[in-house]
Design goal:
CATH class of the largest domain: Alpha Beta
Strand order of the largest sheet: 3-2-1-5-7-8
CATH architecture of the largest domain: 3-Layer(aba) Sandwich
Distance between the termini: 67 Å
Radius of gyration: 21 Å
Helix content: 25-40%
Length: 328
């Protein structure tokens, strides 16, 4: 194998989950060059990985909203860039129509994708002439993907997941004011959220542990909620709106990250920051991470984490010893 293309277009968390695949492929095929194609809005993530040779980005989500000529031209430009190279293998680890179309258009004789039962959109199957073996149910989402590719290309997996991410050095100004924690309260849907009152309680407890509390946001509704949380938490600040890279740089220097099952929280894990991940409706088995002393996942599958569980997890990842109780 001399050159491989990874097709993973979105989303932020999934882009992070896919990064260990790069290290796997380079261990299996020394000297291989790896390219990646992604939607423009989250293409920064593979750009943080110095082991990726070329990142091709196309404004797919932006064009869906705008439907303008500029977006269409940018997409065609990305496709021309895609076809500049010939690949020994193209790995569609996304599994929907748009990723299948990209896979089909790439210059290769070997197009890999998931079996129909495991595709996000079953019609994507047309693009593949090699099909990954079915998932191992016991595996988490990241391990399922790694195992699928390793079986298809014939190499053994290591136990460790090497994300390989390196943040740009120019860290945003809010990081310079002393140690801080970040609370990622926002989610993609209301049903996944954790109550604001719980965020205030936990934020206050973090502040009492001597950390500044920074509350990020991405849209107007999230900003209003961030303001509500920060107004009731001592020593808390609403963060300025930053780019994806700017927020990730802040995450990379945080003393603690607490948040819902979202992309930036998984970036915190990939950057090996002390992290507590909260699940409500989504699957903790598939998307959770547990690394004793550094990352704790709570809740999931309809079970909502309690405040006391979150505080205990925070103490664990911060290395705070629980109080010793005397026997009666």
């Amino acid at each position: 194998m001399k050159r491989i293309l990874i097709v993973k277009l979105t989303s932020l968390g999934d882009m992070v989950f896919t990064q260990p695949l790069v290290a796997d492929l380079q261990r299996a095929f020394p000297g291989v060059k790896i390219d990646w194609i992604a939607d423009s809005y989250c293409a920064d993530v593979p750009r943080w990985n110095p082991n990726i040779e070329r990142v091709i980005s196309a404004p797919l989500r932006g064009f869906k909203k705008s439907r303008n000529w500029a977006g269409l031209r940018a997409i065609f430009s990305a496709l021309r860039e895609l076809r500049r190279e010939k690949y020994d293998a193209v790995l569609d680890v996304h599994g929907v129509y748009k990723s299948a179309i990209v896979t089909f258009l790439a210059r290769t004789r070997n197009r890999y994708g998931y079996p129909v039962a495991e595709l996000g959109e079953s019609g994507a199957r047309f693009a593949y002439n090699h099909v990954f073996q079915p998932f191992v149910e016991e595996d988490c989402a990241r391990q399922r993907m790694r195992r699928a590719v390793s079986r298809a290309l014939g190499y053994e997996l290591t136990r460790d997941m090497d994300y390989g991410l390196e943040m740009p050095a120019d860290t945003p100004a809010p990081a310079a004011k002393g140690p801080y924690a970040m609370l990622f309260h926002a989610t993609s849907s209301e049903e996944k959220k954790w109550p604001v009152a719980d965020w205030i309680s936990v934020g206050s407890a973090i502040s009492a542990r001597g950390l500044r509390v920074l509350v990020p946001w991405g849209n107007d509704a999230e900003r209003k909620e961030a303001e509500t949380i920060a107004a009731s938490v001592p020593n808390a600040e609403v963060m300025p709106r930053l780019s994806i890279t700017g927020v990730a740089q802040m995450v990379g220097k945080a003393s603690l990250v607490v948040g819902m099952d979202t992309g930036f929280v998984h970036i915190a894990d990939a950057l090996r920051r002390p992290t507590v991940i909260l699940f409500t409706t989504t699957s903790r088995h598939l998307y959770g991470v547990d690394a004793p002393g550094r990352v704790v996942s709570l809740g999931g599958g309809g079970v909502v984490p309690r405040r006391d569980q979150v505080l205990a997890a925070i103490d664990e990842v911060l290395g705070v010893q629980p109080p010793v109780t005397s026997p009666n």
